[in-house]
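Quick one:
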Amino acid sequence: MKEQLEDLGLDRKLTKAVEELPETRDLWPAIYDQLQAALDIVGARRFFASPVQNARHNFSSRFAVALVGPRRVLTVAAFAIALLAMVVLTPGIIAWAGRNVSALMEQLGLRQAPVDLGKPLLPPGMVVEEGLNQQQAQQRLTFPLALPTYMPDGYALPSAYNVYTGPYQYAWGRVMRGNNQDTADPARINIYEMPAAETAQVGDQFFGGALAVGDSAVVPVNIYSIGSVGDTQGLWLQVPDVIETDHSGQTRVVRYSNMLRWERNGVRITLGVPDDMSMSEAVKIAESFR
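Output:
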């Protein structure tokens, strides 16, 4: 095992990571990014993001407070090396995890295929009502509208929704940072909700429906939500946000955003956040839905 870790340069990277840890009582945020980067080295972040994230949820406070001085360094290093050894030495586990990711992608309507850069069109018979408050939106929907109770600094909780009804139904809420009125600004959070049972009716690339993700890394994450029926897994990935067409008709992506998709109590929720927002912050929003 030592030789394999050395061949990958992981021993040096872990040593450097431990040396850079700050003297703080809450160490987990400091080592979290280091572990994610180390997983990237062996191409296994998409398979082991959930265990790392779970450890962050379960041990962040009590585990970190107990680590001081040399004991802190040794425990962090041992934990990191054990995790990476599992990644390097257990290809069977990676294959098993890959199959689980594929099943989750299928459940959530995602597939590894070239991204369609065309603009999706509303189906015939779709009725669109814009700027509805929560009560008005709920009156037009047959599924319970889930609402977040947390938003990052600079963002208000969603107060207006666009509701689409007809062949299928969904609600769309959007929040701009600092109440900016420029909806093209990248600092925005989008929330799409629709019944999971109706997602098969949704056109390709449309909100909440089937989505081709190209070669984007798809990372499974656990979401712990009060009021939901059990914990659930979601998928975190990067998707095109702004697409331009040049004079020759060629389309290209000029800006990306991040997306977290999961299902809660029979409702598929798609959370779109800015490219510079971390996965942990998006999960915090997701876990606040009630």
